[in-house]
Please model this.
Amino acid sequence: MALTNKSIDNEYKRPSNKPKTRDNSLHNIIIPRESITSSKKKLAQGYIELPLSREYKKQLKSKDCRPRIRIPENIRDKKIIQVEIIPLKNEQTFKANFTYQMKKESLNLDESKMMGIDLSVNNYGKYCYK
Model:
């Protein structure tokens, strides 16, 4: 912006480009666990309700028409930490990324064995198992 202001005041003679902005596009929304406003009954049914702003709640005629996201079946029993909503290219559809907590599983590895991978220039990949 400083160069643009200088070019307007004729202090900078070279052409300057304005920064590229995305004014009319949608942005990602990250909803933490504390803001997911679903009861245990709704979580058991397999969906969460998204929080709404106070202004938008005033515009709604019915209080039961909150946006919902279906939870995939493979993570319904997990503890959801956050949900990220990502608008896709056409800005008509969205993608939901769920971050959830898992229990650590012991791998029971044999520490006397090891494996190494060499990504060399001539070969795509070469591994050594000992």
Notes: The longest helix spans residues 2-8.
